[in-house]
Amino acid sequence: MFRRFRRTGALGACAVAAAAFAGAAAVPAYAHDDGGKTYDFTLYAKEVPGPNSQESGPPPKVGQVLTFADDLYKTKGGEKVGRDGVICGVIRVSGDSADVTCVGTIVLNGGPGGQLAAQALTHFDTSNETPAAFDIAITGGTGDFKSAHGYVRSTPDGDYNRMDFHITS
Question: What is the pLDDT of residue 126?
Fold first, then answer.
């Protein structure tokens, strides 16, 4: 339960979890009159197990800090196109539910390329085997995403999280 909570409670969950495409597989960008661009694409995040990863454990506690990293893929098990790193803090626990606030950085390889800063405050039912989808705010970026804003919809999808990106830069 704890690992499932950690994975879905973070950006990459909380996970948190983006990437770009290289060459001909580049993310399509739609230009705006003001010179900005819109990027809409989907990636799949899979947690990179840490040295102390566990499938289950005690329920979360207020003040507990969770960290994790994901590899990011174009398709499930396909080409790796990026990575992320997320740190989360449990800020409220009530029965089988918890609020978690997370911040993370998403590294995008190829074109477009750069980093995205993201954050979320998310409510989870820790007893639910299939957590609900949630949105992650894009709060900034570098490189091709230097003035990025938008959101990522994270949806559990088996051993992965489906990450639907909607970015304006």
Answer: 81
- How far separated are the first and last CA of the chain, in Å rounded? 37
Closest CA to 67 of 4, 139, 7, 128: 7
Question: Which residues 6+ apart lie within 8 Å of 163 measured at CB?
Answer: 12, 16, 17, 18, 42, 43, 44, 45, 72, 152, 153, 154
Helix (H, G, I), strand (E, B) or coil at 143: helix
| Dihedral angle of Cα 120, 123, 129, 131, to the nearest 10 degrees | -50
- What CA dihedral angle connects 61, 65, 71 and 77, to 10 degrees? -10
Q: What is the pLDDT of residues 92-142, one digit of tens each?
A: 999 989 999 999 999 988 767 899 999 999 998 888 877 789 999 999 999
Query: CA-CA distance, 169 to 138, in Å (whole number)?
Result: 10
* CB under 8 A, 24+ apart: contacts of 150-159: 152/11, 152/17, 152/18, 152/118, 154/8, 154/11, 154/12, 154/13, 154/14, 154/15, 154/16, 154/17, 154/45, 156/8, 156/130, 156/131, 157/44, 157/76, 158/76, 159/46
Contact residues for 134 (Cβ-Cβ < 8 A; gap 6+): 120, 122, 153, 154
Place of tokens 């998403």: 106
